[in-house]
Description:
The protein has two domains: 36-335, Thiamin diphosphate (ThDP)-binding fold, Pyr/PP domains (Rossmann fold); 338-366, no CATH class. The radius of gyration is 21 Å and the shape is globular. The strands form two sheets. The protein has a five-stranded parallel beta sheet, with helices on both faces. A two-stranded antiparallel ribbon has the order 4-5. It is α/β, with parallel strands linked by helices. It is built from twelve helices and seven strands. The longest helix is centred in the first third of the chain and has 26 residues, at 42-67.
Amino acid sequence: xxxxxxxxxxxxxxxxxxxxxxxxxxxxxxxxxxxxxxxxxxxxxxxxxxxxxxxxxxxxxxxxxxxxxxxxxxxxxxxxxxxxxxxxxxxxxxxxxxxxxxxxxxxxxxxxxxxxxxxxxxxxxxxxxxxxxxxxxxxxxxxxxxxxxxxxxxxxxxxxxxxxxxxxxxxxxxxxxxxxxxxxxxxxxxxxxxxxxxxxxxxxxxxxxxxxxxxxxxxxxxxxxxxxxxxxxxxxxxxxxxxxxxxxxxxxxxxxxxxxxxxxxxxxxxxxxxxxxxxxxxxxxxxxxxxxxxxxxxxxxxxxxxxxxxxxxxxxxxxxxxxxxxxxxxxxxxxxxxxxxxxxxxxxxxxxxxxxxxxxxxxxxx
Length: 366
């Protein structure tokens, strides 16, 4: 079914949820519901739980694969599943996703196949080209460049008259980059259908948020560009999903962009090759295990009767089996050839790339 976008307004309306210091929370770490009327339905709750279990299992297995020489350096996201799943789950495959290097959980939620994801982090060409049926860009490292790219995609969708939106991720460190501010200004001025996700996990590699900025509420940076800013508990997947869904629907209606700060924590190292003990103490991470997003929703679903112990155990076995089958598929990919290094660089290869590819093919034939 073809969808159409309503006429765009010159100025975006008021924020769907004002930024006011403490992050919005629907489910506390202790399992208390703060606003029952805003909770998604039980089916959606179970879907979000499965997606978080799936994302966590990938993160845990990636560590093992790295340590056994079967995967390259990988940026873990364990403990941030609610922030990534709760946001990406609000999209459809007609929308765009612009992840950073740490957003494997969001990409898996969006639909990136596990075998291809494994291949990507193995630096294999089999993981370089994104599936044609998914509007997702590869994981890329330059900080905050995802934001202006997303604005461009969103404006292209608007010009085509579709109701599709673009979602882009950065971390707290990225909000200090020029691209962040330029993108928000650009999106606000042109009313682009964008949802900007700012994952405040407390660290920009080894620099704590408190050292890189005096701002204590990063969502308020949206105020300077006349767009809504929302601050949400990034370890509460229900709250994260609800505010993101509202922002996506708002963008679809032609009401412009939203900045969402998901307050979470990077409990894992910057990458699997990092040693965080060199720059942070046990006091820095104290208390974050109690805020574990997966266990929080698991306990809630069990207590509400939306999930049984047997169903939970079966779900975990299903997720494990899915990953092992995907790993076997990734292991069966043929070895790449040197010439493939110049593929998937440009949609139309440049003359220089054609020459380089021909030279590599000639060397392979020797």
